[in-house]
């Protein structure tokens, strides 16, 4: 993930420097952004985490994060030269491991949370004026996801080794990126933060459960690095 962030920075720095200081002014895909509707797809990587709020001060639950990937489609509605409305439905895979420090037995202490989300963000894209063949932008909005691996309706809980999450969740998202215009397509690397607005935890039947009783809320947060092709 750090390598991808550095790669995006270096790519952006190299291209913007070349565009700003070069006398070359030939515009690639000069009218690319003029149509009212445009389409594309994205490939990317993500790291999901949990933001955990506790009822009482006790040993924290450790969250081990693993990079995973996401893929999806883009529908873009041009509002004006500087503002677009985007719908980006996709599939997001996420891998997290929770370690409950109040257990010595590993079967009770470790819970694997492997999730597959149908993720649907609705975003506003705020772009700067195009400079030769690149255009920086910021993006923000809200999203909804459907967790196909939630186990929300599973009658078994942590006493049987099942850590459960709610199926439907809501988020807000903010990020930035750069559009690069090439001869035949537009390429866009971007970084976006995803922040859960709703408590995702399905609590155990036992109100004194050592796994869930001290958790006031559990929300997803994460980072997306996407590479978009249009």
Automatic annotation (TrEMBL):
<keyword id="KW-0732">Signal</keyword>
<feature type="signal peptide">
    <location>
        <begin position="1"/>
        <end position="18"/>
    </location>
</feature>
<feature type="domain" description="Outer membrane protein beta-barrel">
    <location>
        <begin position="35"/>
        <end position="200"/>
    </location>
</feature>
<dbReference type="Pfam" id="PF13568">
    <property type="entry name" value="OMP_b-brl_2"/>
</dbReference>
<protein>
    <submittedName>
        <fullName>Probable protein-translocating porin PorT</fullName>
    </submittedName>
</protein>
<dbReference type="InterPro" id="IPR025665">
    <property type="entry name" value="Beta-barrel_OMP_2"/>
</dbReference>
């Amino acid at each position: 993930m750090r390598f991808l962030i550095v790669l995006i920075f270096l790519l952006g720095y190299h291209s913007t420097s070349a565009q700003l200081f070069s006398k070359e002014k030939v515009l690639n895909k000069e009218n690319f952004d003029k149509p009212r509707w445009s389409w594309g797809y994205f490939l990317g990587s993500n790291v999901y985490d949990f933001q955990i709020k506790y009822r009482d001060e006790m040993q924290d639950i450790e969250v081990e994060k693993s990079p995973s990937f996401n893929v999806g489609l883009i529908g873009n509605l041009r509002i004006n030269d500087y503002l677009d409305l985007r719908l980006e439905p996709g599939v997001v895979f996420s891998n997290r491991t929770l370690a409950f420090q109040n257990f010595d037995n590993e079967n009770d202490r470790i819970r694997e949370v492997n999730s597959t989300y149908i993720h649907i963000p609705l975003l506003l894209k705020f772009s700067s004026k195009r400079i030769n063949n690149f255009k920086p932008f910021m993006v923000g909005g809200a999203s909804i996801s459907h967790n196909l691996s939630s186990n929300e309706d599973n009658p078994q809980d942590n006493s049987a080794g099942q850590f459960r999450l709610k199926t439907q969740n809501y988020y807000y998202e903010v990020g930035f990126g750069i559009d690069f215009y090439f001869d035949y397509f537009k390429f866009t690397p971007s970084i976006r933060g995803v922040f859960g607005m709703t408590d995702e935890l399905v609590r155990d039947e036992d109100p004194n459960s050592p796994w869930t009783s001290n958790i006031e809320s559990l929300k997803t947060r994460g980072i997306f690095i996407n590479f978009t092709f249009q």
